[in-house]
Amino acid sequence: MTKTAWVLAVGLSACGPQVSGRVSGYELDVNEALFATVDDGKGAMVGAVVVLTDQVGTCASLLGTKAPPNAMYTTFTLTRQADGKLLSPDVGDYVLGATTTAAAAATGVFIRTDGNGTNAIPSANRGALSGLVRVTGLSLDRGTMNLSVDAKFGVQGDAIAGSLRASRCIIDTPSLTRGFLFAGGPGPQGAGVSQSADCADFVACYTATQTSPSNIDAYRSNGSCWSSGQATADACTSACRTALTSLRASPYAPAVCLQ
I need a labelling partner for 198 at 20 to 30 A (CA). Which of 87, 123, 143, 245 fits? Predict the structure, then answer.
């Protein structure tokens, strides 16, 4: 079956998104702002991915496995949870660099490809390490998301900030996670990914330091993080890495946390 992707609504106003910044010397230049929902392979929505880019016709291009050359993409993956269960996206504040127990968390990546379609931003400089993504309006029927972004990227702390309206890109989760934004995603519909090493280490450490660690079920080897597509898995792994670093910093951290 031929894979398709299309935009439900035009979300940019005449004056365009009011968001700006520079990461590793590259200017944020937004021609399109899109969002796509992420499901668990059974039809339940468990997150959303926001894409800001200097390209046009972006929704269909997300099906490709090779990134366009000389292009800019800034992505934010949004997840909500309660009692270890991932929830559908909604309005609210999504914290960048949050711990795994946060009710709403976000991860962000800045991509600037070279002439070969390879990300020219060093790995230490491309990730959003702190800040906030605030969703102030969301209508899946109308295909719009209103949001503001205040994020610091990389060890250098480059800032991106502003507000915008994103249009919904209708694309199935397996196709999205197989595309160039999430290379290495799951294969057939419903297939999962393995628990990451960062989350395995976090679960072992957190379990050793807590008396009732039931609120981390999503991050366990059979948790929803690994059955909801690569976008969700990547967000979970980032959260685990941040939380594990915090746990290891404690002078009372047990040996299992330091292995």
Answer: 87
168: Cβ contacts below 8 Å, ≥ 6 apart: 7, 8, 9, 11, 34, 35, 36, 37, 140, 143, 144, 145
Which two structure tokens, joined as six digits, stand for 97?
């660099």
pLDDT digits (tens, 9 = 90+) for 2-40: 455 665 544 443 345 688 999 999 999 999 999 999 887
Task: Show me where the domains of the chain are located.
Answer: 6-189
Q: Measured in Å, how far apart are the chain's first and last C-alpha atoms?
A: 46
Q: Tokens in use for 2?
A: 């031929």
Q: Can you name the residues that pair with 27 across neighbouring β-strands?
A: 22
Could you tell me which residues are beta bridge partners of residue 134?
93, 148
Residue 150 pairs with which residues in a beta bridge?
132, 161
Give the three-state DSSP class for 20. strand
Using CA atoms, how far apart are residues 220 and 239, in angstroms rounded to an integer?
A: 13
Q: Averaged over 82-90, what is the pLDDT? A: 84
Handedness of CA 26, 28, 34, 35 (dihedral sign): positive
pLDDT band per the 50, 70, 90 thresholds, residue 187:
very low
Query: Among candidates 165, 137, 189, 153, which has minimal Cα distance to 9?
Result: 165
Amino acid letter, residue 79:
T
Q: Residue 126 corresponds to which tokens in the numbers above?
A: 């491309």
